[in-house]
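pls design
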């Protein structure tokens, strides 16, 4: 049997498994690089203790990334039954990501707005947009959980929607130039999914196309909304609560 079975890396399914595992590991690396000074290695870089809310937010966010790597590893190892069992836990973690991500953004903007910063009110559109895009794509991925071709693409794209915060903290001068820089860095993962589809399917899978467009097009939309009077009114109302 082992003599006639093709190695995993030489089959189409095997190459796909390796791509998604590699993408998950690359995402994990991007997160560790970005948050090492302020979270993972905070004791080395900062003497101040992290507030409890930020500790919880970082723990849940990290749990999602670890789960992504674990789930893609299980699929690559043909451990699909365990993968499905962990899916229930994944749904809980995804919900916590949205709740804590939204709460952390609100607490931050309330503090900065109290100090008279209107930039914080504008910036709130970015993390709120992250949580919205992530939540919609994860919900769609769970809806299509029996369609592995759709499910895996949506899960990976949902996670790319979270990467802006990590890339914004990379020790590169270009990342300090604003939201456009870390949006573009995150979109490289969307481009990787599209290139993988073109190489393996000779076309874009609908989940990759529409999910990727949802991620990418939401970014300039958020930047456009952030400076409007309507958004500032909403942000001020949220900050005042």
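designed seq:
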């Amino acid at each position: 049997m082992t003599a006639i079975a093709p190695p995993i890396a030489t089959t189409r399914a095997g190459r796909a498994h390796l791509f998604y595992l590699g993408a998950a590991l690359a995402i994990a690396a991007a997160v560790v690089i970005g948050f090492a000074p302020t979270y993972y290695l905070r004791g080395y870089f900062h003497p101040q203790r992290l507030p409890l809310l930020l500790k919880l937010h970082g723990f849940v966010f990290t749990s999602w990334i670890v789960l992504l790597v674990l789930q893609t590893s299980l699929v690559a190892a043909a451990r699909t039954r365990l993968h499905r069992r962990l899916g229930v836990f994944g749904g809980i973690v995804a919900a916590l990501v949205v709740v804590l991500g939204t709460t952390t953004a609100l607490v931050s903007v309330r503090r900065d707005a109290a100090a008279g910063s209107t930039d914080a009110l504008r910036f709130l559109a970015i993390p709120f947009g992250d949580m919205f895009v992530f939540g919609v794509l994860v919900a769609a991925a769970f809806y299509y959980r029996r369609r592995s071709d759709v499910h895996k693409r949506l899960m990976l794209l949902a996670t790319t929607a979270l990467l802006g915060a990590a890339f914004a903290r990379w020790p590169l001068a270009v990342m300090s130039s604003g939201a456009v820089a870390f949006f573009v860095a995150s979109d490289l993962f969307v481009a990787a999914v599209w290139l993988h589809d073109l190489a393996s399917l000779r076309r874009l899978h609908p989940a990759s196309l529409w999910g990727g467009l949802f991620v990418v097009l939401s970014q300039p939309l958020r930047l456009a909304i952030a400076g409007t009077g309507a958004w500032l009114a909403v942000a001020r109302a949220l900050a005042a609560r």
